[in-house]
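Dear colleague,

Thank you for sharing your sequence with our group. We've completed the structure prediction you requested, and as agreed, I am returning the results in plain text so they can be pasted directly into your records. Please verify that the sequence below matches your submission; if there's any discrepancy, let me know and we will rerun it promptly.
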Amino acid sequence: MSLLLLGALLAGLAPAPALSNDTAIGTWKTETRNGVVEIQRCGPSICGRLVTSELLRTNPGLKDVKNAEPSLRNRPLKGLMIISGFSAGDGEWTGGKIYNADDGKTYTAKVTPIDSDHLKIRGCVFFPLCKTQTWTRVR
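Please find the predicted structure tokens below.
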């Protein structure tokens, strides 16, 4: 009986299985404005589109009016590609871009799965001027 108990205790100390880069695939709730982003594979990379947010729920026709590029200010926010251009790394996605419609700017970004239900998203103007959010999987 004590060997069984010891085995159970040792199993509890075993390291968690490593997360794959595909852990990032899915639908995620952002920390701000109740945004929802769908991340999928785009060739060897990942990309993510804005599905909805607090503002889109009240006004689904919102446009990208704060975009730094005047020719893009008339595009709809709903369905807008906001993350793209990543390279797979060791359990994370690096070298990509994230677009922030609140200020109309694009930032370098990194996507790191924390566990199967949480992503760490870091966007940087330039290192070390970065902001990190934790996104939660929508089930």
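Summary note from our side: The chain has two helices and nine strands.

Kind regards,
the structure core
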